[in-house]
Amino acid sequence: MSAAGSPLAAALERVGDRWSLLVVEALLPGPRRFNELQAAVTGIAPNMLSDRLKRLETEGVVAARPYSERPLRLVYELSADGHELAGALRLLADWGSRVSREAEPLRHAVCGTPVEARWYCPTCERPVEGREAEEIRHV
């Protein structure tokens, strides 16, 4: 399989830049207006945020709906495809917390313990760990 035809390449084509993933993360708790998103995504310029929202909407990751007609103002929320990205974002955040001295790990809200992401096979009904995890392939 060529890199261009890989599942990772397909995902990166849709959301493979820093700002897009941060916008998706900011929308995980629920719908937000443009100004709320700009406050949530530190450092993003308004034109960049507008561009990313349009692109994510075109890709079917974000849905925009008007909350005011005059002037036209929109509220943004994740589509079903956008919500599916939550797992991938959590995996990236987990990795980021392990390789960065500044990043805090994701924690279980009930007890405060850092959570761990693991592969699981629903057919075998067991975790895929160790050497088996290293041998996961696209078929």
Report what the structure shows:
- The strands form 2 sheets. The chain has a 3-stranded antiparallel beta sheet with strand order 1-3-2.
- With 139 residues, the protein is an alpha+beta fold.
- It has helices at residues 7-15, 18-27, 34-40, 46-58, 80-99, 130-134; strands at 32-33, 62-68, 73-78, 119-121, 126-128.
- A hairpin with a 4-residue loop joins strand 2 (62-68) and strand 3 (73-78).
- Helices cover 46% and strands 15% of the residues.
- The mean pLDDT is 88.
Radius of gyration: 18 Å
The side-by-side strand order for the widest beta sheet comes to 1-3-2
Integer average pLDDT = 88
Which ranges are low-confidence, i.e. pLDDT below 50, for 5 or more consecutive residues?
none
The N- to C-terminal Cα distance equals: 10 Å
Number of helices: 6
Number of strands: 5
The coarse overall form would be: globular
Instruction: Note the beta-strand portion.
Output: 15-25%
Structural class from helices and strands?
alpha+beta
Largest sheet features: 3 strands, antiparallel
Tell me the helix content.
Answer: 40-55%
SSE topology string: HHEHHEEHEEH
Helix and strand topology:
Layout lengths: L6 H9 L2 H10 L4 E2 H7 L5 H13 L3 E7 L4 E6 L1 H20 L19 E3 L4 E3 L1 H5 L5
Antiparallel strand pairs: 1-3, 2-3, 4-5
In short:
The chain is α+β, with helices and mostly antiparallel strands. It has six helices and five strands. The radius of gyration is 18 Å and the shape is globular.
Can you tag this structure with a few keywords?
139 residues, alpha+beta, three-stranded antiparallel sheet, two-stranded antiparallel sheet, 46% helix
